[in-house]
Amino acid sequence: MTYQNPAPEPSPDSLPFWQAANRGEFLIKQCEECDQAHWYPRPCCPFCASAKTVWRQASGRGKIYSYSYLRRMAEPYVIAYVTLEEGPTMMTNIVDCDPEALSIGQPVTLVFKPSQDGEQAVPLFRPLEP
Amino acid sequence: MPHSALAYIAGAYEHPLRNAPDTSVAQLHAEVAFGALADAGLSKDDVDGFFCGPDAPGTGPLSLADYMNLKLRHVDTTNTSGSSYLIHVAHAAQAIAAGKCNVALITLAGRPRQQGKSKGALKRADDPNQPDFQWESPFGIQILGVYGMVAQRHRNLYGTTAEQMAWVKVAASHHAQHNPHAMLRDVVTVEDVVNSPLVADPLHRLDCCVVTDGGGALIVTRPEIAKSLKRPLVKVIGCGEAPVGQNGGYMEITDTGAQRSGATAFAQAGVKPADIGYVSLYDSFTITAMLQIEDLGFCPKGEVGRFVMDGNLISGVGRLPFNTDGGGLCNNHPVNRGGMTKAIEAVRQIRGEAHPAVQVPDCRLALANAIGGQLGVRHASSTIILERE
Ligand SMILES: [Zn+2]
């Protein structure tokens, strides 16, 4: 699979996330009021509306929530939702894998890959066990 | 027992074209608008409310209202993608009840086949202010992939099979063979569907709807006006709408807004799923229609795979005749927004004006449901329940 991810356009809400990604760190937002982690990161908690959300280092481990292999694209790729160990589920791609051997519930781990323009590390996942 | 009317659908018109190289988008809107007015027996000057989506070119309703030279006192451009047009029916009924308009025109039209948008890929707003955009576009989000994920998870949770999904397309094709305007009129088999190429696992090519030009329009009006016209009375007795997001990352993508929009509409109408004689379901993909069937309560959650088998959705054969025009899978899917055509075929069924080969005998109650946006990402379900009077 040679699909390369287009670079995101960070917003004021997300700039710390993307800057951290370029340092190899995977951050998520957690609320200090209700203690819940959420995805995608926002300044205000989507559960209790508190502004006391803080960036936390996430483990980068998770499980495939669902996936689909887009095999008719010029550069086929696997789009997926991964449920993070910290709780929330995020959209991503599964890479470095046999797309026909994936399964829901399969453990995966974070791998940063450069965006098409090489400027931004993008959080993707690969199967934990080959 | 008759149910109280919110409003009446007095006119409905589906554009006959599926490929419209020689008609402008504005003219398509005008043709469906005037077609629906003629169907109702009303004139352009009777229209005082106008409802449209972003398929209407220009700023909201302004350009089209000017193009058709409508004299309006109420407008509504609610946009929930393909489910907008059923929400427009509900909002028109509310506006009429509130005295804000008497004759509401709802239009949908466009020509995606002429504008290079016919590949099934979703053209997303490239707006950095759209808060979710940067969390989805880097991963190649597109419509096939997200519906593929929904289908994959339904298979995983409930054991739904490719053959069961295929039955939805088979039923649609049985209906489309009788529709001279349908894009695809060939009857297909379960084998045809599961042997068509995989496009986004587990979706095969024949699990996907068509892309068409054209459009449709509806006229919603107050009871006194509907009863003065010479058309069968189609009463709107229940409506519901339900936007659904990702709940901060704690979602179940196989649960649709139809659970809430359906419950709201059934409660308002005072009827239950077993009372419904005909359903129009937005079939962007086979799985889309299936999730609506279970979330509207026509079968228990997770059992839709078995429910749709053996022709159970085919008119005259099964228990739940659906999309008797051939639906989006075979007939028509103008502007990739399927809600409008769902309402139109439900009106035909209530009037007894569907094709005789697919007309449900004595169809007193019909339901139309649409899922707009992207199931599994963000979507809105809308439900309307219609009764013959
Ligand atoms: Zn909170």
TrEMBL record, chain A:
Superkingdom in the source lineage: Bacteria
Pfam families tied to this protein: OB_ChsH2_C, zf-ChsH2
Stretches assigned to the ChsH2 rubredoxin-like zinc ribbon domain: 18-52
ChsH2 C-terminal OB-fold domain span: 55-113
InterPro entries the record matches: ChsH2_C, ChsH2_Znr, NA-bd_OB-fold, Thioester_dehydratase-like
Protein name as it appears in the record: OB-fold protein
Organism phylogeny: Bacteria, Pseudomonadati, Pseudomonadota, Alphaproteobacteria, Hyphomicrobiales
UniProtKB/TrEMBL annotation, chain B:
Limits of the Thiolase C-terminal domain: 252-387
InterPro entries in the cross-refs: Thiolase, Thiolase-like, Thiolase_C_2
Protein name: Acetyl-CoA C-acetyltransferase
Keyword annotations: Transferase
Cited CDD domains: SCP-x_thiolase
Pfam families, sorted: Thiolase_C_1 (PF22691)
Any one GO molecular function term: acetyl-CoA C-acyltransferase activity
SUPFAM superfamilies, per the entry: Thiolase-like (SSF53901)
Species: Neorhizobium alkalisoli
